[in-house]
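Attaching the record inline, Q. Sequence:
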Amino acid sequence: MTKVAAAFLCSFVLGACHAPAHTAAAANPPCAGFDVAGSDPRALAIADEVMQAMGGRAAWDRTRVLCWTFFGKRKHVWDKQTGDYRLDEGNQVVLMNLESGKGRVFDKGVEVKDSQTLAAALKRTRSVWINDSYWLIMPYKLKDSGVTLKYAGEGTLADGRKADLLELSFKDIGDTPDNRYVVFVARDTHLVERWKYFERRSDTESKMDTVWAGWEWHGGIQLASSRGEKRPMGGLQVLDQPPASLTTP
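Structure, as predicted:
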């Protein structure tokens, strides 16, 4: 697994950090547990611009089912309203609920009944979802629980356009909360168009540096289909209703 997003918050609140009903559509209040005091006002304002450019907080909260293929290897179907989730990887199919942690695993069409094997497969599947979903929707999580957001100056994209840099650090969340990210927000599009990953908060050299490209509308939100060469986020779909595949192996 590409362990880049392990600091992604594991709790079910990931898919359900909603704005209050009376809030204007353009508003983007932080999730409970976001480090408001430790974050920069400028960084917060840029994060709000990113959310609005992607369709707005209300559209994100209404989004129901996300489907994607991670780097051509793993197929995901995730109902972010209920937590129901399907993973297809090789000969294995996993159907589980991310909130309860319960589920079923099928290997070459045969259901796994051994309790220890089942528990290990479900635990791994949750880690896969944490990683692969962060690669898909990180820009929607800039003001997520446990995140501290700092303004890190001005940068330049590969084509010479200017970008604002946001630094994300984490506290008491995910599998590896010592991770750190720097994301490049293009000033003309207000979209994340590049990110850097640092394995430890104190690292000065990034472990990874890739683009976020291929932004397109899916339903009422924008998603990016490329993370650079050989890193496609394929099969992008946003569905209004959960498909039968979420419960049918």
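The longest helix spans residues 115-137. Residues 34-246 form a domain with the outer membrane lipoprotein receptor (LolB), chain A fold (CATH 2.50.20).

More tomorrow.
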